[in-house]
Amino acid sequence: LCYVLKPGDPEGSRVSRFTVDTSEPSAWRIDPASESMLLTFLSGGHNGGCLAFGPDGFLYITTGDAAGPTPPDPLHTGQDCSDLLSSILRIDVHGAKPYGIPADNPFHDVPQVRPEIWAYGFRNPWKLRFDTATGALWVADVGWDLWEMVFRVERGGNYGWSITEGGRQDIHPSDPPGPNPKISAPLAAHTHSEARSITGGHVYHGGALPELEGAYIYGDYDTGKIWALHSGDSVSVKELADTSVKIIAFAERPDGEHLVLDYNGPCYLLEANPDAVEPANTAPFPRRLSETGLFENVASTQPASGVFAYTIAAPMWHDGAMADRLIGLPGDEALRGDLREFPEGSVLAKTLSIDLTPGFSATRRRLETQVLHRYQGEWRGYSYLWNEAETDADLVASEGTSVPLTIHDRRAPGGERAFTWRVGSRADCLSCHTYPNDWLLAVNPAQWDTPGQLDRLAEAGLIQNRAGQSQQDRRRRQRQPQPQSNPADPNIPLETRALTYLQLNCAHCHRDNGGGIVPLRFEASGNLEDMRALVPPLRGDFGITGAQLIAPGDPWRSILFYRMSKLGSGRMPHLGSQVVDSFGVQLIGRWIQELDDRDTQADDRADFPSPDDALASTESALAAASALRSYHYTPEAREVLLAAAAEHPSTSIRDVFLPFFPGDAAGNPQTIAPASVLALAGDADRGAALLTGKAAVCLTCHQAGPALGRNFGPGFSGLATQRNKAAVLDSILNPSAIIEPSAVGHTIEINSGEVRIGLIIDRNGERVLMRDLALQEHSIPLSEIKAMTPLPTSLMPTGLAQLFTEQELADLLAWIDSLR
Predict the structure, then answer these.
(1) Rounded to the nearest 5°, which phi and psi values hold at 784?
(2) Residue 222's pLDDT band (boundaries 50, 70, 90)?
(3) Residues 6+ apart with CB under 8 A from 792
(4) Between helices 582-593 and 618-629, what is the axis angle to 10°?
(5) Which three-class secondary structure state does DSSP give residue 296?
């Protein structure tokens, strides 16, 4: 057995042998007094703890990095093989001693490396299993910020943590690798739009599902999805089921059929579900909004009988969209408790609409209706996308979708700007609708307590025991902060408005157990220490000197303000919004300024920077962006500034100005459908011809031949060798998702005050060799370097895909692939 004591105990994770009394066939019993401890390791949040005997008879044990989610791998143990953490161990338990080291363990005789280690570089390997037919070792590894991984583990393999997260995102790129410097990629990696906490399973060799023969079956704890991974000459992943099960483990019956264990208790059998067979007494799932029963007339959005409209006191920011909300309860059921106890079958719906000409309701267009349905004790989220005629809406696929729009905006160049509305995936719904929020965000007593609304809902029979409810409301209000104040109300104090804004827009993730990567607590009171905001950033300072999450009196040094102000990678909120809320940014900026009573507030230090000085640093860029929002610059100065910002090599600076660029400012990759591009037949000759046209921009960094292009980033032939078409396309759409260690950009601040930006070509104990964007190489002595900081995002700008049609991208990929 492996069991775990309290976190932080150096011997808190324990692998022990026990004697089992098998005298009663139906009631085997473990004798606790027979414990013989084999080995121990540090206990923490990620303990691994899965055991399996391999076909070689040796015992394999998974260990995690013994830490919580934030900060990632604080012990930097992922590549440190002097301990047992972040590894798969292999030991011999058949001898007289507690255990022995097999002679063929890969690091048996390597100095300062624990000989028990079979493979390493895992964050929290959650279940390992051997293929009973081939002996292959499969491991699922719970990811950190963006990815969940599946590995087929080889002897002595290095699987990346915490230099990288599955080869997709740098975590600690400067950490030295362990004894094997080559990092192995996962066979499958799921983004957090479809998986949140992966659970490994088994390779299928049963008889009931012949199409799954030889497939590795695994699932996800948070989303309940189950997949089959086929691996042979190529790798394919197919979703088998989308469930409400909290998948904590898989098991294999003697006949090879697979069981799925729910954390809440039940154990399920994986069976075929033929499309032609509908469960008894079950209606087909509604594929159109008109089939849901929510509306008497869906085109006019007239609610059906028993469905009622409601309002909330203060909505969150949703890219300028407005919401109409409905509630429906089954039969004669009513809300109980504190308005959060919903009966089975309850439905909440929110229809989001946007004015194509801001401020003119006659141009309003319905975009999507989001539905939360309470089923089997849980809330499930779905989205319906309205057709252009606004006569009905269709169910959106589980991965979500995007809708390109044109907004008539007199402030935009030419009076129009492109805008992409993103309909989130169903896994995105679960990112915010979580148990710390009671699964609901805007449904609570304080939000519903608008004039007359509670009485109106009580008269309709939706609220049980209205008199008693008021007392419960008051008791609840005494226990938690109240978000019913509207941040847009100028008659309430600035601090209340700012804290309410953060609570509405950020606290569903940034709270205890909310899922936010950094330990902010925006559901707390206005005490900054309670909010854990007076600390340096854990996920990059974006080149800001002296950065803090919140720097009282100085929004330009506040990472909160920076992330709200920008687009592109690192923007917050990263779900549910792709447009900067100018009102919210200005509100939070003013609040941060007034947090410091000294005479050195940011606005008092100096005027807004001139266009010539605006791009000198991330701080000055933030100040300049604030000046643009307040129309501080003349139209001519604005044009000069934005033109210079568009060409700036630092994404940390450039992203601050993306909200002011014409067109789809974020260069949103969702406007390009990867599956559509990869399905097209590309023409390599047409792709090569693009190099003298639209794709010439690629040659500013990449070489297409000895005399074509510049040797800054990797050459196209190298890309073709290292990545297939899908991976190359992903690097174009999401340049910061995977940054190879050699391609990580750095800023170097020299003691003289000069700053250089580029790639580190070489370094030793005396100097650093950097190649800048002009292809100039600089040998900089370490004694002259004041600071050297890796850039958190790629030097390759976002939005390049917007230059091309889907066919042109397919042609470009075909040409790159022809270089393989």
Answers:
(1) -100, 0
(2) confident
(3) 539, 540, 542, 569, 570, 652, 736
(4) 120
(5) strand
Which pLDDT does position 463 carry in this prediction? 84
The count of C-alpha atoms lying within 13 angstroms of the C-alpha of 777, restricted to the half-sphere facing its C-beta, is: 10
Residue with tokens 């006569």: 391
Other Cβ atoms less than 10 A from the Cβ of 773: the count is: 17
Q: How far apart are CA 747 and CA 286, in angstroms?
A: 53
Quick check: 379 and 244 in contact, CB under 8 A? no
Residue 169 pairs in a beta bridge with 165
Tokens representing 64 are: 């995690």
Residue-averaged pLDDT of the chain: 85
* Helix intervals (H) in 426-485: 426-432, 445-448, 453-459, 466-479
How far is CA 138 from each of CA 88, 115, 160, 213, 808, rounded to the nearest angstrom?
11, 21, 16, 16, 39
For 259-265, which contacts have Cβ atoms below 8 Å and span 24 or more sequence positions? Answer: 260/219, 260/226, 263/221
Which of 346, 392, 401, 389 lies closest to 369 in space, CA to CA? 392
Q: Which residues pair with 220 in a beta bridge?
A: 198
Are the C-beta atoms of residues 150 and 188 closer than 8 Å to each other?
yes
Q: CA-to-CA distance for 641 and 616, rounded, in angstroms?
A: 12
Q: Residue 539 pLDDT more than 80? A: no
> Looking at 172-186, 392-406, 570-584, 595-609, which range is the least confident one?
595-609
Spacing of C-alpha 474 from chain mean position: 36
3-state SS class at 668: coil
Residues 6+ apart with CB under 8 A from 491: none
Residues 483/313, Cβ–Cβ less than 8 Å: yes
* Angstrom distance (rounded) from CA 49 to CA 38: 13
What are 728's two structure tokens?
A: 């190359």
Q: In this structure, are strands 137-141 and 745-750 parallel, antiparallel, or unpaired?
A: unpaired
Write the CB contacts of 781 (distance below 8 Å, at least 6 apart in sequence).
766, 767
pLDDT in tens, 99-119: 999 999 999 999 999 999 999
Closest CA to 522 of 480, 484, 579: 480
Taking a C-beta distance cutoff of 8 angstroms, is the pair 735, 794 a contact? yes
> For residue 195, what are its two tokens?
């998986």
- Can you state the angle between helices 806-818 and 725-733, rounded to 10 degrees? 130
Number of other CB atoms surrounding residue 509 within 10 Å = 22
Q: How far apart are CA 173 and CA 800, in angstroms?
A: 25
Give the model's pLDDT for residue 797: 61
Per DSSP, what are the bridge partners of residue 385?
Answer: 368, 394
- CB 17: neighbour CB atoms within 10 A? 14
Give the residue from 116, 127, 152 showing the smallest Cα distance to 62: 127
Q: In whole angstroms, give the CA distance from residue 610 to residue 614.
A: 6
Q: What residues contact 479, with CB distance under 8 A and at least 6 apart? A: none
CA-atom Rg of the chain in angstroms: 28
pLDDT of residue 96: 84
What average pLDDT does range 252-261 have in this prediction? 96
Distances (CA, A) of 671 to 321, 456, 668, 686, 738: 19, 43, 6, 23, 20
Region of residue 284 (left: phi > 0; alpha: psi -120 to 50; beta: else): beta
Q: What percent of the chain has pLDDT over 70?
A: 88
Residue-wise pLDDT tens digits, 749-780: 788 767 677 888 888 888 889 887 667 788 99
CA dihedral (719, 720, 724, 726) positive or negative: positive
Place of tokens 């939005």: 799
pTM: 0.62
Interatomic CA distance for residues 198 and 262, integer angstroms: 14
Residue 709, beta-bridge partner list = 703
Q: Helix 618-629 to helix 635-646 angle, to the nearest 10 degrees?
A: 140
Backbone angles phi, psi at 571, to 5 degrees: -70, 150
Question: Backbone phi, then psi, for 556, in 5-degree steps?
Answer: -70, -20
Tokens of 259: 């069981």
